[in-house]
Amino acid sequence: MELLALPAFADNYVWMLIQGQQALVVDPGDASPVLQALAQRGLTLGGILVTHHHADHVDGLAALRPHLQGAVWGPDDSRLAGQVQPVHDGDTLAWGGWAVSVIGVPGHTRSHLAFAVAADPPLLFCGDTLFSAGCGRLFEGTAAQMHDSLQRLMALPPETLVCCAHEYTLSNLRFAMAAEPDNAALASHRQWVEAVRADGRPSLPTTLAQERQINPFLRCDQPALVASGLAHGAASDRPDDVFAALRAWKNEFR
Questions:
Q1: How many helices (H) and strands (E) does the chain have?
Q2: Could you list the active site residues?
Q3: pLDDT bucket at 28, cuts 50 / 70 / 90
């Protein structure tokens, strides 16, 4: 198995999972890097996963379809009608000898999905729900939905590789350090991310274990973050209320 993060646009990644001569692609907003990788490596496009309907995740589908020798799986959403084979929370797909679990994660959009691949190590393609040191904006869902969605993802094995759709890690770390300034793991990870980005490498994938240490939206039960949430309007010290306050603060953070 080989996992590639193909850069697209300003800060997107189109993920490519390679097994033998077959490639599975996730969220191809741009077909160009996918076609280039397929040609360079002599690969067949064996399947596509789509997490949600936003253009920077799906606009490459039409150009890739003539090269596709498998299915396009995605949310059961009228905005994707005719573009994907709909799948639902709790479904299990099969690709490359692996089971791929479909997880409903509303919040960023109402029909957002994540895909967990039972490989070694396990893989999570989470679109714009979970980022390294952050989470997606709430365009169509509620804070309560997003908090619940993140908790569902955190129930996966801690060694799971988290394949987010954007290179937002440095900006997310700046917010995380403002929300939890005494977290030593944040300063250490920021140094590492600055080094790999300066070298032109992605900061991803991360792991769920790493995110448990650095991601404020997964640490809403920690005293420092409870205090930050209450200082920014949290209705109570409950983790879901702290999450809602932190997410609203992040929207305005510069």
A1: 9, 14
A2: 52, 54, 56-57, 108, 128, 166
A3: very high
